[in-house]
Amino acid sequence: MPSDRGRLPLTLMLLAGLMTVACDKLTLPRISHDQPVVQPQGLSSVNLIFEESVRTATLERPACFPEQGWEGRLGHSIATTFLDVSRKSFGKANMLPPGSSPGDSSVEPADLTVRLSLVDKSFGEGTPQNWGEENYSYAVDLHVELLAIYYDRKGDPIGKAPLVYRKAVNTWTPIIDPTTCQTAQLDAAMDKASEGLAHQMVTIIANVQS
């Protein structure tokens, strides 16, 4: 690993402290879903631990009828997206069972382990504005916040940082038949949030190495 490795724990803890104490004053790099995947230097593997609060998480929204609701598998979206982004960024990524101990001899070692838990989630309030052939829900606030705790190869904690996604999204749920409507845009908004959070996790590591 490069000579910067020794500075990683201290720098990460300082960054995490800034984000935890005054995250409203700290601006992370803008995440673009079209940008190249960030590749942290000197790290070729990562283990991810998704706690039950993440794995079982869902998002709920009214759809095109007052009596019909949409439920998105947020936990599944986060887990699959984080694994995909991590494999592209680090080269190798494994998902460990909830409650796993980083650095435990029973698990495959990795340069970095990240434990992720859910802090908060919401997908707007109320019901869609218009019932009819074309139903829109304008500027619905989508908010997902995770806590990432980082561990080194030995399993020692080196820092923690919140991962926060908040965006006003426009959703369209057109009616398919008298009892069903299309909710693909709700799924897409959820998956985009998962992708944004995954890139934040990787970008934090890349920033403290620079």
Provide structural commentary.
By secondary structure, the protein is an alpha/beta fold. The protein has 4 helices and 9 strands; from the N terminus they run αβαββαββββββα. The protein has helices at 8-22, 52-55, 74-90, 184-209; strands spanning 46-50, 59-62, 69-72, 93-96, 112-123, 136-151, 157-172, 175-177, 180-181. A 5-stranded mixed β-sheet has the order 4-1-5-6-7. Strand 8 and strand 9 (180-181) form a beta hairpin. Helix 1 (8-22) crosses helix 4 (184-209) and helix 3 (74-90) runs parallel beside helix 4 (184-209). The longest helix is centred in the C-terminal third of the chain and has 26 residues, at 184-209. It is elongated. It starts with 7 loop residues before the first helix and ends with a helix. The relative contact order is 0.23. The model is unreliable at 1-7 and 13-35 (pLDDT under 50).
The ordered H/E elements are HEHEEHEEEEEEH
Mean pLDDT: 78
β-sheet strand percentage: 25-35%
Secondary structure tally, helices: 4
Q: Could you give the count of β-strands?
A: 9
Q: Numbering strands along the chain, what is their spatial order in the largest sheet? A: 4-1-5-6-7
Note the overall shape.
Answer: elongated
How far apart are the termini? 14 Å
User: From the helix content, strand content and strand pairing, which structural class follows?
Assistant: alpha/beta
The radius of gyration over CA amounts to 19 Å
pLDDT < 50 runs, ≥5 residues: 1-7, 13-35
